[in-house]
Amino acid sequence: MTVTDLESFVASFDAEPGYLDWAAYGPLSPAVRDEVRADAELLGSGRRAGFDLVGEHLLQARELAAGLLAADAEQVVLQPSTTHGLMHAIYGLSGALMLSRAEFPSLTVTATRAADALGLLDLQWLEPADGFVTPDLVRDALTDDTRALAVSLVDFRTGYRTDLTALRDVLGDRLLIVDAMQGFGAVDADYAAADVVCVNGYKWLRAGRGASFAWYGERALERITPVLSGWAGVDGDLPLDIVPQPAASAQAFAVSRPDALAASRLATALRHVSGVGIARIDAELSERAVDVIFFADRYDIPVVTPRDPQRRAGIVTLAPAPQDVGPLAASLANHGITVTVRSGQIRVSPHVGTGADTLRLFGDALAAFSSARAW
Fold it and tell me: Which end is more exposed in the chain, N or C (fewer Cβ atoms within 10 Å of the end residue's Cβ)?
């Protein structure tokens, strides 16, 4: 059954109270778990009809992803991960690629490996003091040699939401490659401003690992060489006794046949998000972020996440004093709160289904920490 209202969508969150780590992993939704069980039975039936039914999810997932992007399904290809989609895009580039050193390694490592391996890529590193890739930062760093910018839709450290529309205005005709891992399914973004969007469903979509796809727009299809294209990246049937050219569509950026079970999970998750609407999910998630910030402010714990809701997504990052990181993390754990502690910061990431019980536990943990803190 497709969820079509926010209340039912929120009610479908059944993780244990205290889970505030959706930016790390999204516990599978009940609908996804049900679909996995049903499809596993079909794949165990030994019947061709059962295999074919599960295989139908491949096209369904691409069509649903395209619908949420307001794009053509021919421009969407299923991938094993976000990084796979980004590798196809970046390995196929030539010229100067701009990106921040503060990006998640799916971008920084991929770009470095591509530059070292092929010698066709010149990396233009940005050094944002706060990690925010802003239009002004990009404008000041552009050169005549810049061919593309690779950026995260949402910064994994701080929750900063990138302004894709403004970046498009700054870049002009250059390519905009977007790692949407920390935003797709939870952030209402101007994806039409991008040329490549890569997504994994195991966080905000609650679809599990492997439930991934990449979208390549017209400019990307024209300018990115399908260097890593495999036997599945061609038009027609199995290419026996010949080696045809890569497909003219996004299918060119495929290596092998996708996992139908992963596509099933992805299609189920996308169908529910589409039924509710990204804008409604985004607005509700913004309220949960406000709740987290309220408690942080109440107990004088610094927040590095932007206060402007237009520049904030579902991540709220706390930056306590160095001597307070351990005690605060311990208090959260002792109160049953799951978060990510990394590099002296504490990343708190609610979802729309984060309930009052979890927020109460969070507030209690911060209160206990505050009462024991030495000023």
Answer: C
